[in-house]
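Newbie here. three chains, one complex. Structure please?
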Amino acid sequence: MEPLLSVRSLRVEATSSVGTIVAVDKFDLDIYPGDVLGLIGESGSGKTTAVRSLLGLTERNVRITDGSIYFQGEQVLGGGRNDLSRLRGRHVGMVFQNASSSLNPLLRINTQMRQVLKANRSDQTASDRATRIEEVISRMGFQDPGRVLRSYPHQLSGGMRQRAAIAIAIVSEPELVIADESTSALDVTTQAEVMALVRELATDMGHSLIYVTHDLLLAAEVCTRMAVMYGGEVVELGPTSEVVSSPHHPYTLGLLRSVPMWAKKAPLVGIDGTPPRVTPGFQGCRFASRCPHAVRECSVVDVEWTQTRSDHGSRCIQPEGAPLYSGG
Amino acid sequence: MLGRMLTGAVSADRTTKGFAARNSSLWVMGLPLVLLGLIVLAAPLLPLADPGLQDLRGRLIPPIFLEGGTWEHPLGTDQLGRDLLARIIYGGRLTFVIAIAAVLVGSVFGTLLGMIAGYRRGWVDTVIARIVDAQLALPFILLAIAIIVSRGRSLAVLVAVLAIISWAQYARVIRAEALSLRERPFILGLRAAGASSMRIILRHIFPNVGGTVLVLATLEVGTMILAESALSFLGLGVVSPDISWGGMLAGGREFIQDAWWVVAFPGIAITFVVLSINLLGDALRARYDPRKRTYL
Amino acid sequence: MSFVRFMAPKLLGAAITLLIALSLAFFLARAAGDPARNILGEFATEEQVLAKQIELGLDKPLPVQFVNYLGQLGSFDLGKSLRYSRPNWELIVGRFPSSIQLTVVAMLIATIVGLPLGVLAALKEGRIWDRVSVFVALFGQSIPLFWLGLMFILLFAVAWGWLPAGQSGTWQHLVLPAVTLSVLPMARIARLARSSLSEVLEETYITSARARGLRERTVVITHALRNAALPVVTIMGLQAGTLLSGAVTVEFVFAWPGLGTLATQAVQFRDFSLVQAIVIVGAVSFVLINLTVDLLYGIIDPRIREQGS
């Protein structure tokens, strides 16, 4: 199957008066139609920067310095092209981590949805747009969809705002939805409900979904595949069941062990230390300083990606060397 | 998120490498003012003409770079033949003294009321906040005129008027800071421990609003110089034989057609000093207030 | 309607502010001074001073004077001018058109120049254009306006003879005073527009608007500018409120026949009553203009509109 979105060796750097940080590096990813992928990592792992870069939505001091991106087989970044803004809204919809701050406080939900259609679907007439808005909003599980459309964001509850934000993101029928929940302000139940809704909508409409989160448990419930990020790199990628049952990368293992549900057979442990500041000259595995299995080689050589199965791989010099319940 | 990471890095850096850079920018901004302050302070020691000495035969002599100018009066003379350079330097003394005195009185009064209002909340806050609003609703020059017309003209009245004009600004800004400070855990802890209000306000709230007060007070020195010059220009502030820049402008106004320098130089002095103060204030704000709020 | 519920508390608040402001003006001007002595000058005899005090009602205890003052205000009586022997109200109304004309034109210039200056600076934050406009705005806040007016006269009237130096009548007479007066509000509008807009541009809803595929122009105009407008509208109200009566020095320099010049004339004749009346009118117009700004808030921001209900 032809991937919907292909990212190859994406590198993103952030520059400030202090110096340069490599926020995202060697980022490879393929998203297929109907895919539901979880992009998991702690804050600062580069996951949000990575997905925002896909739309060219980085902050002023953040730049894509390398890599190429293909959408539906057509190159949109690299080779002298930068058409990332063309993807926005029309092909890729984005749901932000905190709906309260991602909705314009001064515009009604209806207006915000209509703007998206006007900008991306010039083929539609005004009544087409109204019909489409009605159709989308009625699927969001609101008791009174009409009232929601007429409301300003502050008149809605947190959960309702999140649903409204989803409606805005999918109204122009993008092929890919990116939900960035990395530091969600919603309570756990609402979050799970909203995610279930996103997934349902995505699969129903044949959309693909990238779910960005720090919550491994939540991602495991919703996603079919998982990509784990650390220090700006994808360190492990595979089907959810594979990643959870036989993680290849010690970092993934560490994450799993810090989830009470999975760690019950072994003592619950956290990961010592803090993520490194990755500067352009950084050498070796980024997790080496925190890794319990690290050998001298780890902090010297640049670790290559190892594909252990056709759909499961990791960036560790001893993949499969770290079973989940070892050392317990 | 990345933005936060970076700003985190920047603010951490503020204590190490960036510190010298920041300080040097403060120095660059402050240097002209320090130099000017020294010159003005040392005025009696400098080889200047007597600023009050009239010379009716040497009236309206142009500055040195114009035809007819002499080194005896580098910036020329005014309508009474007095040396402009000497008058500007001596005039700076009174201008600074008045502005700084007004800022001291206004800032102490305004900061105290602002801290009390913000910390105590309740009716005390309501009353103070209302008075601040009311004070800000009175157009300042008109209020100054009303006070000076009924009280008469003197330096003490002038300083008092300027302080009255400015206290509300401090009270308004500091109140807002105190309001957010009082909910901070360390203040809540002190209250729970039974510390007295006055102690909390002076020992714990004040050090936390000090930076803001400093920024505001710096900027207010400029505002006060402008206000003083306006009042003196209208004949309500400093009058002869005392010298201030505003007073010099008032005197030279009638001769503007024949001798522009009498009016131009004091104005340039005011603009230069106020601009330097505002630049310094902005540099201080960048240092003490990373959010770069505008206090209006 | 919710509009009434939105405005009612604001009206009440404005009335209270005004009452306190007028009381402040009363006490600041009278509490420790002796206007009668000051009006007559230091050579007046005790009898003359006493007679003047009785004439002005200054012989009575301060609280009684205050009640009389409030009573006058309550019946919209601004008293009589000592110098012109006419009701202060008449004198003030006669100057109103000139003052309003000057204020409106100055605010228009300030907005038309200051707003784009600040907006462009925010959109180009950190670049040379930004630095230049920040410096220009800072410069505008540092110049004594009456001196700037004098310099304008020197250049445009005396040296080049393009425009009249003073008084009023034609549009040419309006140019110099209006431009001079516009400098300070222009600088403030530019600075605030810059800081407010650059803050809004960092908000998630702006990134979110871009992510929705909206054009950059739509993002800036309908999303960013509208959200940045509140503080800018506030400062415009504050500035307009001060200009209407506070343009004293600029009016004086250009001999512009507005309230400010009336005030300076009143000072020359120690017309204590007229000065007080102008202060009152100044405070009232300030409060009224800011009430209008509150109303604008409600139109711009739905969240504020609903606070009343």
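Moderator note: Chain C touches chain A through 24 residues (CB under 8 Å). Residues 96-271 of chain C form a domain with the MetI-like fold fold (CATH 1.10.3720.10). Thread marked as resolved.
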